[in-house]
Design goal:
Oligomer: single chain
Strand content: 5-15%
Structural class: alpha/beta
Number of helices: 7
Bound molecules: NADP nicotinamide-adenine-dinucleotide phosphate
Number of strands: 6
Order of helices and strands: EHEHEHEHEHHHE
Shape: globular
Length: about 220
């Protein structure tokens, strides 16, 4: 079985790749040189390169989150976020669906966020992109059901990765910990376990869902 995981150089993607490898999957982890989601041509080249490979699982994990009030968002930031978090993942799926259809257990996991469940100031574009990606999850869960392909969105809460350390100071992370019912942020491997289950043949009946894994943050 073969899994493609975007954004596998660090954070949640790296932890997810390790789990798939531990379970015997061959894992494709394209570097930025091989697949740059900011560049439509790069996505096209990557899709063409993979056109002869069998693929069983696609995890759309790579993402960016630039925090800014909507009234201050320049076009360049709007375009970069929508391209990375929504448009390129859609184009990647569109190009690779023919291979997934040939798999005996095709699975797609799109990585969303708690900001696709609730939102917060400065997250408008990120929330729009992640909600958009979940729209793709829902539609594909139906479109690909005839091929037995299961499609889900995993929505992590605060997770200790470079993305989080870029957006929050250590003091802010301490404050946030107090607002999470479990009292701490997630470790990447804790999110990876859910991604692995949904993205592997262990999942046989769960499709079209938004699975929130946030230590209870969004139920308050
Ligand atoms: P991270 O540590 O910042 O890693 C991001 C990954 O995405 C890196 O591998 C990076 O590759 C890749 N990437 C970024 N821009 C790219 C591009 N243009 N083309 C190809 N790859 C690109 O992120 P993370 O915290 O693990 O987050 C992973 C996913 O979870 C993201 O979709 C994020 O929105 C979501 N998420 C994270 C959190 C959190 O608290 N961390 C919470 C909710 C949701 P390079 O090494 O080339 O830069």
């Amino acid at each position: 079985m073969k899994a493609l995981i975007t954004g596998g150089s660090r954070g949640i993607g790296k932890a997810t790749a390790k789990l798939f490898v531990d379970h015997g999957y061959e894992v494709l982890l394209p570097s930025r040189q091989e697949l740059d989601l900011l560049e439509p041509d790069s996505v096209d080249r990557f899709v063409n390169r993979l056109s002869v490979e069998g693929i069983d699982t696609i995890v759309n994990n790579a993402g960016i989150n630039e925090i800014n009030l909507l009234e201050d968002v320049p076009d360049s930031q709007l375009e970069q976020m929508l391209m990375t978090d929504l448009v390129s993942p859609i184009r990647l799926l569109r190009g690779l669906i023919p291979q997934l259809r040939k798999s005996p257990a095709g699975r797609i996991v799109n990585i969303g966020s708690i900001w696709a469940v609730v939102s917060k100031e400065g997250r408008s574009i990120y929330s729009a992109a992640k909600n958009g990606l979940h729209g793709i999850t829902n539609a594909l869960a139906i479109e690909l059901s005839d091929a037995g392909i299961l499609v889900n969105t995993v929505c992590p809460g605060f997770t200790l990765t470079e993305l989080t350390q870029k957006n929050y100071t250590p003091a802010q992370i301490e404050q946030l910990n107090c607002r999470i019912p479990l009292g701490r942020m997630a470790e990447p491997w804790e999110i990876a376990k859910v991604i692995y289950f949904l993205g592997s043949a262990e999942n046989t009946y769960l499709t079209g869902q938004k699975i929130v894994i946030d230590g209870g943050y969004t139920i308050q």
